[in-house]
Design goal:
By secondary structure, the chain is of the alpha+beta class. Among the domains are: about 375 residues, Glycosidases (TIM Barrel); about 120 residues, Sandwich (Immunoglobulin-like), CATH 2.60.40. It contains 14 helices and 34 strands. Strands 12-13-16-17-20-21-22-23 form an eight-stranded parallel beta barrel. Strands 24, 25, 28, 30, 31, 32 and 34 form a seven-stranded antiparallel sheet that branches. The longest helix is centred in the last third of the chain and has 20 residues. The protein is elongated and about 90 Å long.
Length: about 700
Amino acid sequence: MNVTIYPGSPYPLGATWDGKGVNFALYAENASGVDLCLFKNTESHAEDIKIKIKERSHQVWHVYIPGLSPGQLYGYRVYGPYEPENGHRFNANKLLMDPYAKAIAGTIRWHNSLFGYQIGHPDEDLSFSEEDSAQYIPKSVVIDPSFDWEDDKALKISYHKSIIYEAHLKGFTKLHPGIPENIRGSYAAMGHPVSINYLKGLGITAIELMPVHHFVKDSYLEEKGLTNYWGYNTIGFFAPDVRYSSSGNLGQQVSEFKQMVKELHRAGIEVILDVVYNHTAEGNQLGPTLSFKGIDNFSYYRLTEDNKRYYMDYTGTGNTLNAQMPGVLRLIMDSLRYWIIDMHVDGFRFDLASTLARELHEVDRLSSFFDIIHQDPVISQVKLIAEPWDIGEGGYQVGKFPPGWAEWNGKYRDCLRDYWRGADSMLGEFAERFTGSSDLYKDDNRSPTASINFITAHDGFTLNDLVSYNEKHNEANGEDNNDGESHNRSWNCGVEGPTDDQSVIDLRNRQKRNFLTSLFLSQGVPMLVAGDEFGRTQNGNNNAYCQDNEISWLNWPEADKDLLEFTRKLIHLRKTHPVFRRRGWFSGRPIKGIGLEDIAWFLPEGREMPDESWNHDFAKSLGVFLNGKGIRAVGPKGEQILDDSFYIIFNAHYEPIDFILPPGKYGKQWTKILDTSENTISEKGETFKPKDSVRAESRSVVLLRQPHK
């Protein structure tokens, strides 16, 4: 079949439909030739049309074909040397996905032909495979980018007002009885009124979706009857994963994703994507050739200096994208801008972000990656959240990312867990973490909102399991329980797993409330993992990355409604009172015109905490006064009022402690509005006067309020 072709343009990269035809552009600096392959349908075993691209500008191969339309399936074959020892792995027998594909029509069907070398050959990847992979690899799709966004625009919710909810898109909706069964687990399900009403009622302001970029399920997992459920194995940085589409695979997944974002925005909820730009799904030298490896391995990946056959691996996945290279940096930036401009997302959480910061071997906070984001007028204006570590040497970088970035604060997580299990010498660090971790962020002119506070994340125990299991139970993962974190850094109430002992059950429930209360009363940005608000369990599995089943899916019918209501009230309390979400640091000095300091710490006997008491091994309890009189809040009629002041009692001791309230200058009358030992949050609790005694039961939090008037 003859096809009319024109030179086209090297930009934009990818496949771009202009209403009359499609421009194709592929960056492949070291290639000697590129074929564009067109397919009639997803079942084609070989391309129906092969077009040799002759135009090349700035290392970009390009061609324009009139008459093509959205839904067109395509892929590439790229020519060049097959010299693994020199970093080149070109093999035109392999059909390759477009790194800039906006949609991908299906998933990989594992077969030996997907590998650039001969499987089982004694020379391994130094051998060369002549098998054609076209029928086993999903095809890239030309999309129609138009969409009626109506009046949708970025919500731009300030960090200090943000409450983040980390969720797996499929796991959140798969078992929800209120969502139509035919769309459960999809973008449409997350944008369904049932999902949105729940999120809105809970009070969260942003949903952080675990990876939705098109990813690959690992062959070794498939062989064991498992899958890559979490999705941290990206192959398409522009394509929403087709597995979460309920409407089709020829571009419909793009529109469905956009509709989800529009519905969430309409409800006042931002969308943050968990993105994985540090590596791809092609693995190490023994991995498959799916896209980047066959297009220009030398340009896309970090290779070892002494032998470019091998890959630098800072991620534990086999390879590392080379963010030092201009072509790779451009891909990352183009991807980020696409998701902001075309898909309307509000921010990103960068998986293993330290990897992206690496110039050569060391982590450099002023690397080109950060520089280019800082100056980008689009990307710099959205939420940028780092997972500030990788597995390489010097990779733990909590507190070291540049201004403008927020960070998952792993030190907050570890400290809060240690405190509530009763570890020694924790009061000083607990106070630091509770007030926003100034030791990590203040010297860089960052605010408390640089700290994303969390107790649990997708990776690890759920909150319920954190207080219920001594040891991990990952047997279902098929690795003899050797995967995942080896220990539990929380106090688990002394009895392993399920129990009928009511005293143990009560204590576990109290610990859950303690963690949640600490999280939502801390300065910084709280992040809640989906299901922790109602006691979700994974039955002790702390590494459910491969469990696309009831282990990972939220079990809505078994939700703990009491814990859910407690969490809702906690979130409402935080949102109502700005004293819990300050934009600046506490000073410890008197507020001008008020006379009282903005924060003060107390011993149980009612006197202020002396310096020598912070590090006493036996000290597990303290009181903290938060002065709201210098902070503006919104009254019941929308009017501006001064915020209330609060006195919080934290008792991580295994025995109850009587706290003497501070002198009258701190408050004339206090009302107890929260007590984790009683599972209560109420505006009409017991009242106390200065120097009265308030009992804090063992391992509990008590919150008292002093009205602003």
